[in-house]
Design brief:
- It contains 3 helices and 2 strands.
- It is mainly alpha-helical and about 110 residues long.
- A two-stranded antiparallel sheet has the order 1-2.
- A hairpin with a 5-residue loop joins β1 (about 50-55) and β2.
- The model has no long low-confidence stretch (mean pLDDT about 85).
Length: about 110
């Protein structure tokens, strides 16, 4: 039996001329990009900030924990302050582990 379609074809990487197709492709790819960023953040605990300007000059952003926090950390070059709940939890766990190890060493 012969195939009716050619299957999935490779898309040539050049700017689209059709404005309607350009907007649709931008929306789909933006959603896919934000979804992958969310997965990376969830699976690896990465802090992520993405800012995208659409062809229509609208701004879209995604950030975890938030765009502002990640940008401030990037611009300043300093590690984040232990203000977030997650950071406090990690630090408390670390302190507990250090305390337990110190107790084992002293015994």
């Amino acid at each position: 039996m012969a195939r009716k379609s050619k299957g999935r074809q490779k898309v040539e990487m050049v700017k689209m001329n059709n404005e309607s197709n350009l907007q649709v492709t931008f929306s789909k790819r933006r959603d896919g990009l934000f979804k992958k960023a969310s997965e990376l953040s969830t699976l690896c605990g990465a802090e992520i900030a993405i800012i995208v300007f659409s062809p229509g000059q609208k701004v879209f952003s995604f950030g975890h924990p938030c765009v502002q926090t990640v940008l401030e950390r990037f611009v300043s070059g300093n590690p984040p302050q232990a203000a977030s709940g997650t950071m406090k939890l990690i630090e408390a766990h670390r302190n507990t582990s250090v305390r337990e190890l110190n107790m084992q060493l002293t015994q």
